[in-house]
Each structure stands twice: as C-alpha cells, then as structure tokens.
C-alpha cells in the first residue's frame, strides 16, 4: 500500500466560488506550488466564517488527483462528506492538507498487519504452533527471556506451524508478531 503524499503546513485558498459539482479548483496565484504530488485529500471549507474547518457545516473532504500550476483536479465528497457549494460572495474558501480518517486508516493498514500479538507458543522440542499466522517479517521469538530471532537462530514457518532448529521446552518459547 502506498500512503498519500504529505507536506507540512499547507493551506491554500480557492480563487473564486464553486458549485457542488465543480471538479477543477483554481487556487490563488502561486499557491499550487505548495501542494505535494498527488494523490492526497484536502479539507475544503469557508475559512472566513469558520477558522476551524470542523465547525463549518458545509466542510468537505476532496481527493486531489492532479495539480497543474494553480489548478487542482478533485473528486468531491470523500470520506462520508457531502459535496456542497463553496460560492458565498465575500467569503474565502480554504483547502488544507491535514490528517483525515483515511490517512489514519491507511497508516494502520500499512503497519504490518493488526496489532502485535504476544503468546507463549504451544509445543515443545522443535515443533510449535502459533495461534495466528504472522505477517511476513513480523515474527520475534524469545526463549529464556532472550530474543532469539536475528542472531542466527534458524526456524521455518508455514502458516501457524513453527519448526525450530534448536529444541525448547514447553512454555519456554514466546512469540510476538503481527497477524
């Protein structure tokens, strides 16, 4: 999975008003250069009346799919928001590249699987069974309180079946992993 492009402290302003069906936004002159390479989501709101976008009842998240100069091509009504008019005379409509629920969700997915699971592995000798199938590369093994993996410890893993090259007593092997 590739995460959206990011940049710090990016806030731009639309140059004119837009209807709820507009998919091309012209920014104030020179502001397109503030934006990173697409794709990414932007929060679009009436910044004249609502310094905090969370307070604007018509706030919208849009997906930037292309930036050419000061023109941003967007897909409207992202992340359960509604496409609304952004065209009240005398108002400034800003777009900010900020963290949204999509980014948090994408980060969680990009992390190796679900949260770390730690277990005392069942089995003994060289044959053990894990409760879940670990995500590749996430398995960390401990025996007698010391980390075993990484220091030349050899094992094979097939699904939930763990075969060690060295023998361990029941209850001695601990596995931490993502699944």
Strand content: 35-45%
Helix percent reads: under 10%
Number of strands: 13
Describe the oligomeric state of these chains in a short phrase.
Answer: single chain
Mean pLDDT: 90
Trace the largest sheet across and list its strands. 1-6-3-4-5-2
Describe the structure.
By secondary structure, the chain is mainly beta. It has one helix at residues 101-110; strands at residues 11-13, 24-26, 40-46, 60-68, 71-78, 93-96, 117-120, 122-129, 140-143, 146-147, 155-158, 161-168, 173-177. The protein is rod-shaped and about 75 Å long.
Quick description:
This protein is mainly β. It is 6% helix and 39% strand. The mean pLDDT is 90.
Helix and strand layout, with pairings?
Elements: E1 11-13, E2 24-26, E3 40-46, E4 60-68, E5 71-78, E6 93-96, H1 101-110, E7 117-120, E8 122-129, E9 140-143, E10 146-147, E11 155-158, E12 161-168, E13 173-177
Antiparallel strand pairs: 1-6, 2-5, 3-4, 3-6, 4-5, 7-13, 8-12, 9-10, 9-13, 11-12
């Amino acid at each position: 999975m590739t995460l959206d492009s990011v940049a710090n402290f990016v806030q731009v302003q639309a140059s004119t008003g837009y209807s709820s069906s507009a998919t091309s936004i012209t920014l104030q002159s020179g502001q397109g250069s503030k934006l990173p390479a697409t794709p990414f989501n932007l929060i679009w709101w009436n910044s004249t009346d609502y310094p905090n976008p969370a307070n604007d009842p018509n706030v919208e998240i849009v997906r930037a799919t292309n930036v050419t100069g000061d023109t941003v091509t967007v897909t409207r009504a992202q992340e359960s928001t509604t496409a609304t008019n952004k065209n009240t005379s005398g108002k400034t409509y800003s777009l900010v590249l900020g963290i949204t629920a999509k980014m948090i969700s994408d980060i969680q997915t990009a992390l190796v699987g679900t949260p770390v699971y730690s277990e005392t592995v069942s089995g003994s000798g060289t044959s053990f069974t894990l409760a879940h199938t670990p995500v590749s590369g996430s398995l960390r093994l401990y025996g007698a309180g010391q980390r075993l993996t990484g220091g030349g410890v050899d094992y094979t893993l097939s699904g939930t079946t763990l075969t060690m090259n060295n023998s361990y007593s029941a209850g001695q092997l601990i596995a931490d992993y993502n699944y």
